[in-house]
Amino acid sequence: MNWQQLFIDLFERISRELERVLNGLTPDELNQQPAPDANTIGWLAWHLTRSHDRNMSEIARKEQLWIEGAWYAKFNRAADPTETGVGHSPEEMAAFKAPDSRTILEYHNAVLERIKDYIVNTLSETELDREVYSPTFRNTNTVHRRLLGVLNDGFQHLGQAAYVRGLITEQGWLGR
To answer: What is the pLDDT of residue 173?
Structure first.
């Protein structure tokens, strides 16, 4: 296995696990807060995917699929490339209403395909050292560090969503 395939496997793992978390949830369950000011599964899944889309679009120097593919309309949101959930207040998070699980997963899978294309067709050892500016966080990091951050955040949000699923369905963490 080469290192590019390792990156792809990690992103695919997040996608598979996200599908498990969202499987069979009703819209009410997607949007249910387990406690006041707590994130919902729908918000976490959207935020995870928006983060992947924004970060990878910045890294690959492409327009976000959120805008290019008009995903914002399917989520009943504004066509704002800066809205990813970063900095959302508890009120903004509570007001967020996720569409059905299928729509969330379709958007996530579209982002995953773009990530895989970038890894296969662009990512090289030289590219890993290229510096990329993040307008969201107003800092510069290498592609390598940005990819690690995207993966880290993805796994953390995935774990949070799985935990919330266990709380609201009373079936433990993914029924285990």
So the answer is: 59
88: domain range?
A: 3-175
Residues of the chain with pLDDT under 70: 1, 172-176
Q: What is the CATH number of the domain that holds 82?
A: 1.20.120.450
pLDDT for the residue numbered 176: 55
Query: What is the predicted pLDDT for the residue at 171?
Result: 74
Sign of CA dihedral 109, 56, 77, 154: positive
pLDDT score, position 172: 63
Number of domains in the chain: 1
Q: SS3 string of the chain?
A: CCHHHHHHHHHHHHHHHHHHHHCCCCHHHHCCCCCCCCCCHHHHHHHHHHHHHHHHHHHHCCCCHHHHCCHHHHCCCCCCCCCCCCCCCHHHHHHCCCCCHHHHHHHHHHHHHHHHHHHHHCCCHHHHCCEEEECCCCEEEEHHHHHHHHHHHHHHHHHHHHHHHHHHHCCCHHHC
The predicted model scores a pTM of 0.94
